[in-house]
Amino acid sequence: MDRFEVFHRILSQSNLSSMESMAYHTVYEMAEFSLAQLVAYFTIDAGGVSCVAARTREGSDVSPPEKYIPIKMVQQVALSGNIQSKTTTMEANINRVTPSFAKRQHALAIPMISNGTVSGVWFLSRSFEMPAYSDTEVQLLKNIFKDVERLIQNTRQLEEQQYELDTAKSELEMNRIGIIGDHPSMVRMFNLIKKLARVPSTVLIQGESGTGKELVANAVYKLGAYDGPFISMNCGSVEPNLLKSELFGHVKGSFTGALKDRPGLFKKAQDGVLFLDELGEMPTDMQVTLLRTLECGEIHPVGADQPQTVNTRIVCATHRDLRKMVDDGKFRNDLRQRLKGLTISVPPLRDRRSDIPTLCDYFIKKYNEKFGLAFKALRPEAMNVVMSMDYRHGNVRELEHIIERAMVFEDDPNYITENYLQMEDDEDDDGGDPSSIGPLRTEGTYEERMGAYAAALLKDAIEKSKGNKTKAMKSLGLSRTTFYSLLNRHGLS
Ligand SMILES: Nc1ncnc2c1ncn2[C@@H]1O[C@H](COP(=O)(O)OP(=O)(O)OP(=O)(O)O)[C@@H](O)[C@H]1O
Question: How far apart, in whole angstroms, are the C-alpha atoms of residue 187 and residue 456?
Answer without folding.
Answer: 33
